[in-house]
Design a protein that fits this description.
The structure is a single chain. By secondary structure, the protein is an alpha+beta fold. The protein has three domains: about 10-70, Rossmann fold (3-Layer(aba) Sandwich), CATH 3.40.50.20; about 85-105 and about 170-290, D-amino Acid Aminotransferase, Chain A, domain 1 (2-Layer Sandwich), CATH 3.30.470; about 105-170, ATP-grasp fold, A domain (Dna Ligase, domain 1, 2-Layer Sandwich). Helices cover about 35% and strands about 20% of the residues. The protein is globular and about 55 Å long. It binds adenosine-5'-triphosphate (ATP) and magnesium ion (MG).
Length: about 300
């Protein structure tokens, strides 16, 4: 848990919630805040399996997963490929598209290649758009953009997280998410942020967002969402647990991204979806841990 990413604080919350659950279940579990001495610590403390509760860069993107493969220590969640695809919104979106999963129109900004001040004139879609760093999480450095002037400020902002930026058609509608456990979709969660934008504050402050499980969508949409999520997770090898995010406008759904280490805090979506399926938090954590493996 923890680690150096911008999602460090969220990761500490996820990690501590998981740690408490595993200890309640009788595991000899310890907290490790990931730092450069991580390989030494894992060896020194004789760690038999790792529950990865790191979000964001170096933790959710395959780096820690690759290190654990080298050390021969089984770990939870996706392997190196699934983690790096999941972390990279652009690659993940192109993978989803290739599987026939609907996505919103976009343009990719690349620092050093494109000019933020003129990028708006080349967009293949009309405003509003949403500007997102390709490899980041928790809505950090994400901006909803209504004008071209706002766009030239939003791009450098996103670049604070990543030099590759996904500029995507803004979908005004309902946010939906599909948790996955052991490759199978959990009940769909509908997300209703009171502020209208599911930003960092709305994600992690109690009472700022309303969650509806199962989502108020028709059976056909539910079926499609579950099938798409399972298919994508399967193709990239997002085993254990994961979460696919979507937006729906009228009845049209578009895929946003796949999270391979979704939040595990008390307000988090996968635990909420699992609960709706009759799986309490402690059992959820235990099942994810029991699925720890080497994948390379
Ligand atoms: N095309 C879009 N149209 C409307 N809203 C969007 C769109 N893309 C993203 N959003 C909003 O921005 C939020 C952040 O986007 P996204 O889930 O892609 O990124 P993230 O920062 O990686 O989030 P996470 O916390 O799930 O890791 C979403 O939860 C959603 O509310
Ligand atoms: Mg998301």
């Amino acid at each position: 848990m923890g680690g150096p990413s911008k999602e460090r604080e969220v990761s500490l919350r996820s990690g501590r919630a998981v740690l408490a659950a595993l200890q309640r279940r009788g595991y000899d579990a310890v907290e490790i805040d990931a730092a450069a001495d991580l390989p030494d610590r894992l060896r020194r403390e004789g760690i038999a399996a790792v529950f990865i509760a790191l979000h964001g860069k170096l933790g959710e993107d395959g780096c820690v997963q690759g290190m654990l493969e080298w050390l021969g220590i089984p770990y939870t969640g996706a392997g190196v490929l699934g983690s790096s695809v999941g972390m990279d919104k652009v690659v993940c979106k192109r993978t989803a598209q290739s599987l026939g999963i609907p996505v919103a129109p976009d343009a990719i900004f690349i620092a050093g290649r494109d000019d933020p001040t003129t990028f708006g004139t080349t967009l293949p879609m009309s405003l509003p758009v949403i500007v997102k760093p390709s490899r980041e999480g928790s809505t950090i450095n994400v901006t909803i953009v209504q004008t071209t002037a706002e766009l030239s400020a939003a791009i450098p902002h996103a670049c604070e997280s990543d030099g590759t930026v996904l500029v995507e058609k803004y979908v005004k509608g309902t946010e939906l998410t599909v948790g996955l456990l052991e490759g199978k979709a959990l009940p769909v969660v509908e997300i209703v942020p009171k502020s209208g934008f599911y930003d960092y504050t709305s994600k992690y402050t109690k009472g700022m967002t309303e969650y509806i499980v199962p989502a108020r969508i028709d059976a056909e949409t539910t079926k499609a969402l579950r099938a798409w999520s399972e298919k994508l997770a399967e193709i990239v090898g997002a085993v254990g647990f994961a979460r696919a995010d979507y937006m729906m406008e009228n009845h049209d759904v578009v895929f946003l991204e796949l999270n391979t280490i979704p939040g595990m805090t008390d307000l988090s979506l996968v635990p909420m979806a699992a609960r709706a399926a009759g799986i309490e938090f402690d059992e959820l954590c235990e099942r994810i841990l029991e699925g720890a493996s080497l994948k390379a």
